[in-house]
Specification:
This protein has about 280 residues and is an alpha/beta fold. The protein contains eleven helices and twelve strands. Bound molecules: cytidine-5'-monophosphate.
């Protein structure tokens, strides 16, 4: 099983993104760069994050005429991005053009084509919001219609809410990659997410990737939060070098025996009360 955590780097600057990414790279599967960070840091933030060896999900939700979207996908492929998003409501011609552009550009670069993810109905939209646009369908019916349209146009992945996973899996089978935000570990705040699922439940329901922002980036120790999530999904996902420390260790700096709290055990670092240093434990 791959590490399914995609950390949403919803921060305002390249510097903040890199600081988080350097800490988290060993324990997560990919980083999501959205509009806020991209508008601030530009393609350079993507190049710098790639420099850490991390997979990148560029979430700019392209929606335009087929030719323009194809060119945007071409440039995104040049950047070495692993996943990107397009609005499925752009229609099958636009979706097909996006998928072809990714494949053609990757073939030229002799690289892997990016996984292009279709966004169906934004989770901020309900039936009343759709009616406002003259759409009579329920949000759920529309999700399914757009999911089928995207898969029919050749897309190999979709972004969907945790509640939609089973329905989409049921209709489209196991071949499609499902990427799911709205993930909250049991211990975390829901923030502004209304319909959430725990990481383990979302994986059980059939998600391939989990987009997780604030429960990790807003935690006291982001690395400890990510390791705890991996532990809840499948402890084998935690790399050997990042296994939680035991409750008692000898400080790597001064050798004194000290007790660690849960966060320190998961993060692999602690404040030593004897030598007064912030210590990254040497295993
Ligand atoms: O902090 P949190 O875990 O809520 O972050 C979730 C991320 O997923 C954010 O970047 C948010 O924009 C994104 N997202 C979402 N719901 C969607 C689509 C994307 O929360 N339906």
């Amino acid at each position: 099983m791959q590490n399914p955590i995609i950390v949403a780097l919803d921060v305002p600057s390249t510097q903040k993104a890199l600081k988080l990414a350097e800490e988290l790279a060993p324990v997560v599967g990919a980083f999501k760069v959205g509009k806020q960070l991209f508008v601030n840091g530009g393609p350079d933030v993507v190049r710098k994050l790639r420099g850490l060896g991390a997979k990148i999900f560029l979430d700019l939700k392209f929606h335009d005429i087929p030719n323009t979207v194809a060119k945007a996908v071409q440039s995104t492929t040049d950047l070495g991005v692993d996943m990107l998003t397009v609005h499925a409501s752009g229609g099958s011609e636009m979706l097909g053009a996006a998928e072809s552009a990714g494949h053609e550009q990757a073939a030229m670069l002799r690289s892997e084509p990016p996984l292009i993810l279709g966004v169906t109905v934004l989770t901020s939209m309900d039936d009343a919001n759709l009616a406002e646009l003259g759409i009579d369908e329920s949000a759920q019916d529309r999700v399914l219609r757009l999911a089928k349209l995207a898969a029919g146009a050749g897309l190999r992945g979709l972004v969907c809410s945790p509640q939609e996973i089973s329905m989409i899996r049921g209709e489209l089978g196991d071949g499609i990659q499902l990427v799911t935000p709205g993930i909250r570990p049991e211990s975390a705040e829901a923030d502004d997410q209304k319909r959430t699922m725990t990481p383990a439940d979302a994986i059980k329901a059939g998600a391939n990737w989990l987009v997780i922002g604030r429960p990790i980036t807003g935690a006291k120790s982001p690395k400890a939060a990510a390791v705890e999530i991996l532990n809840s999904i499948n402890p084998e996902l935690i790399p050997e070098s990042e296994q939680p420390l035991p409750e008692a260790v000898d400080c790597s700096e001064c050798g004194q025996g000290i007790k660690l709290d849960k966060n320190e055990q998961l993060a692999g670092k602690y404040h030593c009360p004897y030598c007064e240093k912030e210590v990254v434990h040497k295993r």
